[in-house]
Write a structure and sequence with these properties.
Blueprint: H1 18-21, E1 26-30, H2 35-47, E2 52-57, H3 65-72, H4 79-85, H5 88-98, E3 99-103, E4 119-122, H6 133-153, E5 159-163, E6 174-176, H7 187-205, H8 208-222, H9 227-257, H10 262-281, E7 285-290, E8 292-294, H11 312-319, E9 336-338, H12 339-350, E10 359-364, H13 374-387, E11 391-392, E12 396-397, H14 408-429, H15 436-466, E13 470-472, H16 475-483, H17 486-491, H18 501-526, H19 554-563, H20 571-577
Parallel strand pairs: 1-2, 1-4, 2-3, 4-5, 5-7, 6-13, 7-10, 8-9
Antiparallel strand pairs: 11-12
Helix pairs in contact: 2-12, 6-7, 6-10, 7-9, 8-9, 9-10, 13-18, 14-15
Length: about 575
């Protein structure tokens, strides 16, 4: 275990602004194209005029690293900054003047970085809670170490700001303080075995009995499309099996050691690795542990969010009436924190490093001094949807279900029962006579099956979070906040006690995460009607029956669709025509 002490920061009158503290500093930022990183970049550009910015961004097929950074300026996160500079062109000029972009991918190896770096803010991480185990370790642990070693190889001795998560504490109960994690897991051994998992699973996927199963399943579904299609589908099934197996490796290894998923497990291992590096190299290290990061309260605009975060798919699905129950303890604390509070804390922490060789730990969270119980979150979201129901295409409005919080065991039993019912329904409808009624039934079964799969997936992923009986204290973070000048506390707020949950959830967050659904429904109502008429001239249709040129099952689809609308005595003539 790495012994560290928390950095105690005391209030002081006439405190130096964090803007001044970072004046003239060169800050390296990772994860800039992600949810958190792009707002850190925007705030550095907007509020830290004399801070030099270095970005590590990997290029992608058809898009260079510089082009990816330029694209960020067109996103809503930069709207507030765009207004004072006047135009997109002026914003790009500002970006090019202030920012240096280095093309590199730390997950593939040690990046080549220039010297003179004063602060590293490392916020890049895998965005999934359940990636394959090797991918999670490669990004969250080995990649982070590649980054820091690349910085040291360039000759810099910077302060490190390592963005982690409050949930590295694992499935504990009680109060979690801001300090190093108490475990004795060997991160080197875990990383080594995780990276060996893919070759092992690859070899297992090629065993004859599995290959026969993949081929048999593919043949049942695509035999009419030809041997090429069957072979390609069988190979895709093998790859899908590998991915699921590697995901399950990560999930079960994490749970066996006391973490809810491989994401939090690898972030915990990453913390221990960087603590050791910082102690060996005598570098200042600050570990930032946000809780569940959600949409902005204030900056860059109320409700701003990029993509869907942890709670958002559940909120949307609940508003659509698709989640009849969800696991969770009603009195359990759901620890949400707006993204702008996390960004402000990161900037204050970057400007206030601990002594070299020591590590400071900060929880940026709400559960200690402004707790949001799960039942209160549910009540506020339910009130929002009752006042502002989501439109249902052609059927009025969605009604939201009433949750009774029956507990995880009961919810799992309900999900298993729903899975069995949808499986039976699927078997029944596939053996019904082909007709319009049958096609409608298939669509309904597919929709119900997708709904059950959604609830099962998110119950498995997030059940541990909604059933957590834990409080993350933020005493160290609040000591830092109180030490800031009065102007900085107003300009860069991150005191979660100031959040009004009713206002945030009903006026800010829920409207933001449901806006796209409402806009889509509006476009559906305004969609022009399309009329199909027969062509006056004949058309030649050529079908690749064996999938020799194009892998396709279009003939099978056509025949079933056509014959479904014909009487049985007309089928032979239709087949001859085809």
């Amino acid at each position: 275990m790495v012994e560290t002490r928390s950095s105690a920061v005391h209030p002081s009158e006439g405190a130096t602004s964090i803007v001044t503290k970072l004046t003239g500093k060169r800050v390296l930022l990772t994860g800039v194209t992600g949810f958190l990183g792009q707002v850190v970049l925007e705030r550095l550009l907007a509020d830290f005029p004399d801070t030099r910015i270095l970005l590590l961004v990997r290029s992608q097929t058809g898009q260079s690293s510089v082009e990816r950074v330029h694209y960020l300026t067109r996103k809503p996160s930069f709207d507030k900054l765009r207004r004072p500079v006047g135009s997109d062109e002026a914003l790009l000029r500002l970006l090019d003047e202030r920012v240096e972009v280095v093309d590199g991918d730390f997950s593939l190896g040690r990046p080549e970085l220039p010297g003179g770096i004063d602060v590293v803010i490392h916020s890049a991480a895998t965005v999934s809670f359940d990636p394959p185990i090797d991918e999670a370790f490669q990004t969250n642990l080995l990649g982070a170490m590649n980054l820091y070693r690349g910085v040291l190889a360039g000759g810099s001795r910077p302060a490190l700001v390592h963005v982690s998560t409050a949930y590295v504490a694992g499935v504990q109960k009680g109060v979690i303080p801001e300090r190093t994690l108490d475990h004795r897991v060997d991160w080197r051994l875990e990383a080594d075995l995780a990276m060996r998992a893919r070759p092992d699973v690859e070899a297992a996927s090629r065993k004859p009995e599995l290959l026969l199963r993949f081929l048999s399943d593919a043949s049942k579904e695509h035999s009419r499309a030809g041997s090429t299609t069957v072979a390609e589908d069988a190979e895709q099934r093998r790859k899908d099996w590998m991915t699921k197996r590697l995901v399950e490796y990560g999930r079960q290894r994490a749970r066996s050691l006391g973490w809810p998923d491989v994401y939090t497990f690898t972030k915990a291992m990453g913390e221990r690795a960087v603590e050791e590096l910082a102690a060996d190299e005598q570098l200042p290290l600050s570990i930032v542990r946000p809780s569940i990061i959600e949409s902005a309260l204030l900056h860059p605009s109320p409700g701003w969010i990029d993509g869907f975060k942890m709670a958002d798919p559940i909120i949307r699905a609940y508003g659509l009436g698709q989640i009849p129950e969800f696991p969770g303890i009603p009195e359990g604390i759901v620890d949400l924190i707006p993204v702008d509070f996390v960004v402000n804390a990161i900037l204050a922490i970057a400007a206030t490093p601990p002594p070299p060789g020591e590590a400071a730990h900060y929880h940026v969270s709400s559960g200690d001094r402004n707790p949001l119980p799960f039942h209160r979150l549910y009540e506020l979201v339910r009130e929002y949807f009752e006042a502002h129901p989501l439109p249902e295409r052609g059927r009025g409005q969605h009604r939201v279900p009433e949750w009774t919080f029956p507990g995880n065991v009961t919810v799992e039993r309900l999900i298993r029962r729903a899975e069995r019912l949808t499986d039976v329904a699927e078997q029944v409808v596939t053996h019904l006579p082909k007709s319009k009624a049958m096609r409608d039934a298939v669509r309904r079964v597919d929709r119900d099956k997708a709904r059950v799969d959604f609830v099962k997936r998110y119950s498995d992923l997030y059940g541990a979070y909604t059933e957590a009986e834990v409080i993350y204290t933020d005493e160290v973070a609040m000591a830092l906040f109180r030490s800031l000048s009065k102007e900085d506390r107003a300009r860069f707020p991150f005191d979660a006690a100031a959040i009004d949950w009713k206002h945030y959830l009903q006026d800010v967050h829920s409207p933001a995460v449901t806006r796209s659904l409402r806009e889509l429904s509006k476009r559906d109502r305004e969609r022009p009607q399309v009329r199909i008429r027969e062509r006056e001239e004949p058309v030649l249709a050529v079908f690749d029956m064996e999938g020799t040129i194009i892998s396709s099952n279009v003939v099978e689809s056509y025949v079933w669709a056509k014959m479904a609308d014909l009487e049985p005595d007309e089928w032979p003539g239709e087949l001859v025509g085809v």
